[in-house]
Amino acid sequence: NHNQRLLLEEPVRSFQLKNEVLWVCTDLSIYRFDIKTEKIHKVVDLNQKGIMNFWCDRKDNLWISIYGEGVYLLESTKTLSDRTYLIVELTHYSYNKKDVNTIASNIVWTIFENADGDLLFGTNSGLSKKMDEIGGFQTIFNREIVIIKQEKTQDPSRIWMSNFGTKIYCFDYK
Fold first, then answer.
1. Alpha-carbon distance 81 to 124, whole Å?
2. Taking phi first (over 0 means left), then psi (-120 to 50 degrees means alpha), and beta for anything else, what does residue 135 get?
3. Using CA atoms, how far apart are residues 161 and 148, in angstroms rounded to an integer?
4. Could you tell me if residue 10 is left (phi over 0), alpha (psi between -120 and 50 degrees) or otherwise beta?
5. Across the beta sheet with 39-45, what order do the strands follow?
6. What pTM was computed for the model?
7. What tens digit of pLDDT does each residue of 133-157 get?
8. How many CB atoms lie within 10 A of CB 61?
9. How far apart are CA 148 and CA 112, in angstroms?
10. Tens digit of pLDDT for each residue in 52-94?
């Protein structure tokens, strides 16, 4: 006999397991399921916005991409209360053609963190790296990227990327 339990009735877009927490992303919300207590909590309600992807980074910040709007950041998820956060409470990063330190596009397909903690954002206009020292982003590759992968044993600056099924790139960004 296998023990199984349905966590949500909503269609799941993606999920991430990190430090005894299962982060679950649906089209409209992000949930936090504590594996030890078996409690599920809606952390972010995006009020009819369509989530593309999300990532909980090594600093326990939650990054959320919404189609056509760039990315949103909810900081320090380890210290969250049990309330649900609204989109207006999150830090918003979006493309601005007048700013060289902006994300490459508002269509962010994927969010990835490498072994060194570099945050990379694959967009329809290129690959952006979050640059804390300048308070923004640097575009480091100028082609559409929808998938980013990395072997755990390889150099952290070497990643594998793909667009919509036509090209695969091996890229060393340092």
1. 35
2. left
3. 5
4. beta
5. 12-18, 21-26, 29-34, 39-45, 85-86
6. 0.86
7. 888 999 998 888 888 888 776 677 7
8. 17
9. 7
10. 899 999 988 999 999 999 999 998 777 777 778 887 888 999 9
